[in-house]
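Bumping with the actual sequence this time:
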Amino acid sequence: MINNQTTSTVLMIRPSNFGFNPETAASNSFQNEPKQNSEDVQAIAKKEFDNYVNALTDLGVDVIVFDDFKESSTPDSIFPNNWISTHQNGSLIVYPMFVPNRRKERRMDIIDSLRQKYNYKITDFSPYELGGTPQILEGTGSMIFDHSNKVVYAATSPRTNPVLLTTIAKHIEYTPVIFEAMGKSNELIYHTNVMMCVGDTFISIGLDTIIPEHREAVLNQIKTSGKEIIALTNDQVYNHFAGNMLQVKNKLNESILVMSEQAYNSLTEEQLAAFKKHNNHLLAVSIQTIEYIGGGSARCMLAEIFY
């Protein structure tokens, strides 16, 4: 079976208690403590979220929205791609999360709803987060799938365990490409999806974030894919979330590259021309508060629904 790289259906979670998460801040250098009170932060985040949903639906993308629980204690629930992924072989995978308060984001009502609608077979890897030597793998934050070539790219970090990655790659019959990439404070970059995006016919990547001894192997694998490489600078990755993009399709089968407004504004004319060559639409959404406080961007807010 030839896999499609993109889908026209995405899952999003409308926040009820969005805010700065101190449990994740130690491993996510993209987070910043808010200057506003928590009620203002939540109100702004909800507005940014709703505008994002509207922008997607206006372009013909099917968006499945679940509301977070009213009394939620999960400030990062707006980023569902870390705990769930769906696949074209009919599987839905649930993932182990790094910190305890993010583990509460996993919801059986959402899993059951998707299973009833799409007849998924559920595989739950979340128990790997328990025990004396937990193994963590945070979904499509940790893993970037090249579906058309059945390859999965992953930068190791406290949130991306290479042993479990290899197990899951085998489970879905993909080839793993594992490497180290460094963040702006010379730490292991927390999620692969802040420095890499795979589309139908292109791969955008912050090559210089990858340590020199791993860079050539990653580059060679990308060249094997036949997809055009669009290189991003470290400044674009570290300071503007330019690596955190996702290509989706709409109901007309047009390609849409989704990114944040600040990511879009950081791109050069040459990069923009390259992205436009591979996409019918570039969608830039204003999610400044979510990015600044949550440490995640446009791609992190989307869980792809393949069926």
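The tokens above came from a reply further down the thread. The radius of gyration is 18 Å.
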